[in-house]
Structures are given as C-alpha cells and as structure tokens.
Design a protein that fits this description.
4-stranded antiparallel beta sheet; 3 helices; 8 strands; globular
Length: 117
C-alpha cells in the first residue's frame, strides 16, 4: 500500500517521526488502535497469532502504511507489526488527526482494505 505525493502532503503537518530497532513491535495484536503509521525507512512485517500459531500476513517497505484498520473500524489491532531491518523510521498520526484527515484519505484507505487477508 502506497500513498502518492499529494496525499502525503495533505497529512504531513499531522505526522510525528518515530524510530524503532530490529525486533521491536510497533503495534501489538489486541492492543487498542490509537495511531496510524507510514513507513519512511526500513522493513517491517505483520504477524497474526491464532491460537498457538503465528502467521506472517503482510510485509511493509518505505511508503507503506498500517494501523488504519483499527482506527477506521474502531477495533483492536488485528496483527502485530515487527521491525525486520536493523532500524526503521516511521511517521505516525494520532486517532484525532487521522479522523480529521479521513475525509480526503478515506477513499485511498478503503481501496487498500481489500488487500488484507
């Protein structure tokens, strides 16, 4: 999932930069969704735990985004997102800012929802 230049410009003012290390969980499955994230640098992956089994369900590279489902559906995180590269830089947006911006970005995010397993 990628966001084009115009879409990124619309939300740039509301974004906060965060840095994580290899193995860090940026979000954890089951936690409340309170932020939306865009990957700036590094590689991440999402894992879903079902019973005792963990399954990789998504890979993220720069310009990918995650966290929108928990905010749009007002549900707990559906998966954990883990840093795969040595470090990762993301920018995040609070639920309040996300909701304010959802008007212009709702169509973009809805298009991506069909790609989640």
């Amino acid at each position: 999932a990628s966001i084009d230049g115009y879409e990124r410009a619309q939300i740039a003012d509301a974004l906060v930069a965060e840095t994580f290390q290899k193995g860090d969980a940026i979000v954890k499955q089951g936690d409340p969704g309170n932020k939306f994230y865009i990957v700036e640098e590094g590689e991440l992956y999402a894992v879903q735990k079902v019973g005792d089994m963990e399954k990789r369900v998504m890979e993220y590279k720069p310009a990918s985004y995650f966290g929108e489902l928990a905010l749009m559906k007002n549900q707990p995180r559906a998966a954990s997102v883990i840093v795969q590269s040595e470090t990762a830089k993301v920018v995040s947006m609070t639920r309040q800012a996300f909701t304010m911006m959802l008007g212009p970005l709702g169509d973009v995010l809805s298009r991506q929802m069909v790609n989640y397993r």
